[in-house]
Amino acid sequence: MNKNSDKIFLLQDIAIIILSIILAVILVKTDALIKILTSAKELELLGSFIAGIFFTSIFTTAPAIVTLGEIAQTNSIISTALFGGVGAAIGDLIIFHFIRSRFSHHLPELSAYRSIKQKVKFMAKLKFFRWLTFLVGGLIIASPLPDELGISILGFSKMKVSWFIAISLVFNFIGILLIGVVARAF
After folding, report:
1. pTM, 2 dp
2. Distance (Å, whole) CA 134 – CA 55
3. First to last CA, the chain
4. CA distance 159 to 134
5. How far apart are CA 121 and CA 42, in angstroms?
6. Using an 8 Å Cβ cutoff, are 103 and 6 in contact?
7. Using one digit for the tens of pLDDT, what is the confidence trace for 6-44?
8. What's phi and psi for 27, nearest 5 deg?
């Protein structure tokens, strides 16, 4: 690729991110997200799946946590975590695909210093570094923190999509299971 097409792709990626932020702000400000999640809550398992999709984004995590907690109070915690985990894994996969196919392509452009780039490439080849990225990325996905950081770490590690799906599903299941346990305790 030439430099002009690289700049165009980078500008497209920035535009997509900005539009996503604008859409998320509109959803929150107009209470559309709350209405969607309230409707989803009444659908029980399908609601867990829908809330799971929203569990992945920095802009929709908080309402999704509340919705998943409320669903877990009246339904099986295991089924809530399972269906919510599947929804969250799908949401994570969308973000992972974006990072993997678009953003990671621009990573070399963003690193200004060649020595840092060489160090990162060397570290990425180490087996310990790969397992560390799996662990750190997975723990971030399991936590109530938004998944974008964990997905970015996993996306840059060049892992297979099948491994990513498995890690995302397991760690989201654990995170939503803990949300359900806490919701039932209070």
Report:
1. 0.72
2. 20
3. 56
4. 9
5. 48
6. no
7. 667 667 767 766 777 777 677 767 877 677 777 766 777
8. -60, -40
